[in-house]
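Dear colleagues,

For the upcoming journal club I promised to circulate an example of a predicted protein-ligand complex. I picked one with zinc ion because it came up in last month's discussion. The inputs are reproduced below in full, followed by the predicted structure.
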Amino acid sequence: MAPIDPHSFTDSTHPLTTHVSLSLYLSFPTSTIHASALLTLSSPFSGTLSLDSRSLSLSSILDPQTLHPLPHSLSPTPDPIRGTEISVVLSGQSQILLIYSTSPAASALQWLSPPQTFSKTHPYVYTQCQAIHARSIFPCQDTPARRIRYDVVMNIPASLSAVMSARHVRRRLPLPEEATHLDSSLCWCAEDRVVEEFVMEQPIPPYLFAFAVGELGFREVGPRTRVYAESADVEVLDAAEVEFAGAEEMIRQGEKLFGEYDWERFDLLVLPPSFPYGGMENPRMVFLTPTVIKGDASGGQVVAHELAHSWTGNLITNVNNEHFWLNEGFTTYAERRIVEVVQGADIATLNMGIGWRGLKDEMERFKDNLECTKLKNNQQGVDPDDVYSQVPYEKGFQFVLRIERQVGRTAFDEFLKKYIATFKFKSIDTDTFLDFLKANIPGIEKEINLELWTEGVGIPEDAYEPVSTIYTKIISLAEEFKQGKMPSEDEVAEWKGQEWELYLENLPKSCEPSQVIALDKRYRLAESKDYEVKVSFLQVAISSKCREYHGEVEKTLKTVGRMKYLRPLFNALAQSGGTEEKQLAKQVFAEARETYHPIAQGVVESILSKYI
Ligand code: BES
Ligand code: ZN
């Protein structure tokens, strides 16, 4: 066994899967997908091939040429992080056909019943495969070290439509001959079913596999961009149309900076509020939380970030999660370059400042687990969802910025373009990047301590704390809060969400309750429609034991499932030391749990089990 990824059973000596053909029958009443997966290997293989899977019910594995069963076994107990290893014995085949069903608890899938949707009349399902959840939808070599092309035939209720991180081929009636893998109790060709076909011609790591099925509608916002959302949610569609009108301009800027946009379409899907992330860079179809739509610059920031992944992450991919900073650090840098052009340098600096604060907080969070403060870190036996943090984003950003500042923008821009052109559609590790850096910027290792940056703990001294008048002003106002001073109406007159977020995040962790209440009375922060502001405020309120906000905390935790909000609120409650707070955390989770995506359920569970 020669593993290439601590989160996968994939063996480096085995041939890679180059193509997957999926036939998916979505059963909403049972939250199950009845499926077949035809895997094609890069070469014929004799021996035992390892595949990743998680909570799949496997009914058979066949040689697709002969339809004879292939000998196989499953690891006796699932690994808590990697899931179940499927070992298939091959004797010269280069294709494998697996017939299986997914579990209603599949970690990548959230099934929403009609009452959980906006329309309340149709069900909805969507995926989130990063970091290691694709294996709960189809058996695969679920590592970003491997890339696959795929095609999908998806059988869904005719009242719904499907979107994917792939090219839509057609919507048509189901054909009887397609139903071979289905149990006879399920009717592939029933009158109320349709088939949607998709094909992904560009090779992608499995974590970028994505779909959503629901009653969807869309608006055209640019020559290669539509925004999709639940069709009944006209308000979100209207708002998204305005919010994301600048997408094409961003793509053009991205192309200027990083080279041609390789994915043809850049569509956006606004998901229900339970979507666990701000955004997910699924190729051709970025997934977004509805909380980004608030009519200011921050929605654009998330889109800029997911767009930037089209080059850094989706074209050049980290070989495994230990090198995640190659995806997120570069993307955060690229995002800020795009924001700088389309929204201005002040907003880019403000974002940098929020990031800097976040990075400092993470150093505090990981003071007893310094491994997590390294860019390249050891994740043997570590669940990537448990160690998700700002470190790969913000320390990674700082490292990229450090190089830019050393060589100057013009030279660095040229370097970036060459880096992307050289490694596109490849998966690389930190050393590969460093070798390329040293080869293309000779002597760089004498100017920057590359080893300290990539392998050292903490924040290197030559990191760059952003400076701008507005940033410095906000930090000093936050400092003054400790002395009992509140910012005046004049001082905050121009503030939007990001200014407030920076201010609130720089307040002391625990403040005088009367002062917190006074601040809210004046500026109505707990009721802000901007979740970044609301959650930053509620965090301060919880840590300061202002219990009058518990109602608002509960409401928030029951409305949104974005982990960026769940994590700090549940953490603040669990770590506050108060019995009432702990009780609230337990009660709210018990009541809201079912409305969260399985990944978010797991993350909240691990917070509560650590502190309660
Ligand atoms: N790829 C990430 C989301 C992700 C990371 C999902 C790890 C699963 C595992 C995405 O690009 C991202 O970083 N989203 C951010 C957006 C923000 C930085 C603008 C988020 O969700 O907050
Ligand atoms: Zn990202």
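Two points we might discuss: Residues 305, 309, 328, 331 surround zinc ion (ligand 2) (CB under 6 Å). The chain is about 40% helix and 20% strand.

See you all on Thursday,
B. R.
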